[in-house]
Amino acid sequence: MNEVVNDWFQVGKTSELISELEKSDGVKELFIQDKKIVLTYYEGQFGALNNKCNHMGGPLSKGKLKKGCIECPWHYWRFNHQTGDSVSSEASKHYAPNAGAVPKYSLKIDNETLFINLVESKRVPATYSMSGNLSREPKRLDGKIRVLGLSTTAMDSEHPRFSTSEELLKSALIQGEKQLEIETKFIALSNLKFRHCEGFYSKSEKACTWPCSITKLDPTDEMKIIYENLVHWADVVLISTPIRWGNASSLYYKMAERLNSVQNQITLKNKILIQNKVVGLIITGGQDNIQSVAGQMLTFFGELGFTFPTFPFVAHSLGWASEKMEQNMDHVQKSEHLHQESFELLGRSVELCQKLIKVEKALSI
Ligand code: FES
User: Fold this and answer.
1) Pick the CATH number of 145-364 from 3.90.1150.10, 3.20.20.450, 3.40.50.360, 3.30.450.20
2) Which protein residues are within 6 Å of ligand 1, measured from CB?
3) Which residues contact 310 (CB under 8 A, 6 or more apart)?
4) Residue 264 needs a FRET pair 20 to 30 A away by CA distance; which of 3, 21, 94, 213 works?
5) Architecture of 4-117 per CATH?
6) Which residue's alpha carbon is nearest to atom 1 within ligand 1?
7) Which of 62, 74, 201 is the best mutation target for the ligand 1 pocket, counting ligand atoms within 8 Å of the beta carbon and taking the most?
C-alpha cells in the first residue's frame, strides 16, 4: 500500500529504489491506483512515465533504457525517460516523423523518500506518414481480372537459371494474356530484398501490425511489393514453387511468415484483407511429396482468405527413382501437357474469380 500525503504517493526509500533499479538496468514497473507506470533511473535522476507506448500501447516497463531514453520493446520507439518526449530514432522516423510524447509524472524526494504525483501530463499523439499507403481499405477497382504470377524459386538473380515451376507459371501467364480477358504481372521473389519475419507476434499479438511492423521500420524492405499486389492489386494469384526436401521453397516460407501480418488482422480485428481472391498452385520437383506441399500451401492461403478453383494445383515430379535434373528440365520444357494444364488452372482460377466478383456486385446492389 502506497502512503498518500497531499496527492503525493510514497514510492519508497530512494537508496532501496536505486539499488533495485541498478539491478534491473534502470527500469521498474510501478502499479499505483490502477495506473501502470514505468519508473527509471539514469545518471542520478529518476523518471516516471505512463507505461503505455504512444504507438500501439507497448509496455514501456518491459523496454530498455538507452542514453536516457526508454525504448519500447515492441517496435523500438524511444522516449526521454523524464519528459516523455519522443526522440527520433531509426525505428520511428520513417513511419512517425514526430512520435509525440508519453504522459509523465512529477516526482519529488523528501527525507530520502521518493514520492510521485499521479496527475499526468497530456499524451501527445504521434503524427504518421507512410509512403505507399498500404493501410488503405482494400477495394477492387473495375477492369479486367488482374493476375499476379508469383515465382518462389530461390536463385541468384544476377545469374538466373532455368526453373521448371517458373517456366510453367510464365507460360500460363503468356497464354492467359493471349486467350483470356486478363491483365498479368509477374514477380520473382528472388528479385526482392526483404527481411525475415522477426517474430513481432511472439512478443504480443498486438505487436504484429498491418502494415507489417518491418515495413514501417524499414523503407528499403521490399516485402511491401508483395503486400501491395496481394492485398490491393491482384484478383488471382498463381504461385509456383519447387519441392525442396519435401517442402515448398525456403523463399516461399520466408514470404509466408511475413504474411502473418495479413492473417493477424482477422484474429485481432476481424478485419479480412483478402476477399474474393483466388489462388492456384504450380508445384514441380525432382522428388515427390506433392500432396504434402500442396496441402500445406492450400491451408495457408485458405487461412489468409483466398478461395480455390476446382483442382487447385498442377504438379509434376520425377519421384525418388530419378535425380537426373537435366532430363527433368527437358521433360518440363517439352511437355505440352504440363503447359496446357498450367494454363487451364489459370483459366479455372479466372473463371471462379469472375463469378465471385459477380456475386459480390449483386449482393451490394
Ligand atoms: S514502438 Fe511501442 S508499441 Fe510500437
Assistant:
1) 3.40.50.360
2) 53, 55-58, 72, 74-75, 77
3) 348
4) 94
5) 3-layer Sandwich (2.102)
6) 75
7) 74
